[in-house]
Amino acid sequence: xxxxxxxxxxxxxxxxxxxxxxxxxxxxxxxxxxxxxxxxxxxxxxxxxxxxxxxxxxxxxxxxxxxxxxxxxxxxxxxxxxxxxxxxxxxxxxxxxxxxxxxxxxxxxxxxxxxxxxxxxxxxxxxxxxxxxxxxxxxxxxxxxxxxxxxxxxxxxxxxxxxxxxxxxxxxxxxxxxxxxxxxxxxxxxxxxxxxxxxxxxxxxxxxxxxxxxxxxxxxxxxxxxxxxxxxxxxxxxxxxxxxxxxxxxxxxxxxxxxxxxxxxxxxxxxxxxxxxxxxxxxxxxxxxxxxxxxxxxxxxxxxxxxxxxxxxxxxxxxxxxxxxxxxxxxxxxxxxx
Length: 338
What we know:
Blueprint lengths: L8 E4 L3 E4 L3 E3 L8 H9 L5 E2 L3 E2 H5 L3 H5 L10 E6 L3 H14 L3 E6 L4 H4 L11 H13 L5 E6 L9 H11 L4 E4 L13 H9 L7 E4 L5 H11 L3 E4 L9 H11 L8 H19 L1 H8 L3 H4 L7 H7 L5 H11 L9
Parallel strand pairs: 3-11, 4-6, 5-6, 6-7, 7-8, 8-9, 9-10, 10-11
Antiparallel strand pairs: 1-2
Helix pairs in contact: 1-11, 4-6, 6-7, 9-10, 11-12, 11-15
């Protein structure tokens, strides 16, 4: 059984049109930067977001926060995601984001990490829906962009409140909602519970697009969850790290019921080189090389007898040496069949 596309679109606000059942790249801290987004866009991501950006950092003019505002026309449609727990700071940062002209502004009410939650931001706001509504209102009033939200099911299993969150945020004007099917307490452990996401989608009060997120790591699972839970699209996070091909693989499977061939070692090397080149261009040689070290294991995951080469990839300090090493990988006889 496979899904046949209809001539439909998913709309976010008045001006953003996505293909029927779009595939979204999740915003991920220290991952979803422009170099990573480039390769995901090349391989089928329909809508992407920046790394989340601190509202407090933006209004203090922090260099790291400002750098995350960098977006490029080839990425469109692209959303900038902000987080924070103070209404005034969120409103001011929304004005700053508005001036950079993304296609939408997304609010993070789902990040579970302690340093964010302790500031009353991210998933910490799930304990205070009234505050969540006030923060969202403040952002909407301060921008001309469509505002969307990414969040979780609730703080813990005893306080799952995603239905109330969805209704109230829709009522104040958000244009789409992405839901990660875990609570904050779960962090990234256990399995995502998509039944609650389906309940939101099937609520007759809900008119905005509902995107599901959590545990999608194969075309089969993507199709199963689409058919089972009836959501408007899927947001993919960790499964795309080092494997941007997943977007086109899912789309091809939806259309044909068949699998695309897996990327060869040459494919892996070429995409890794593109990612590396863009990382150095955007961040500079030192930081670009350092942050790429988080990606090599994923690009070459499952390659046999690769430990020694992987060690070299994460220790070399020259981009030219790294490009030379990547070129030699394609020549390794034992990898030619991959």
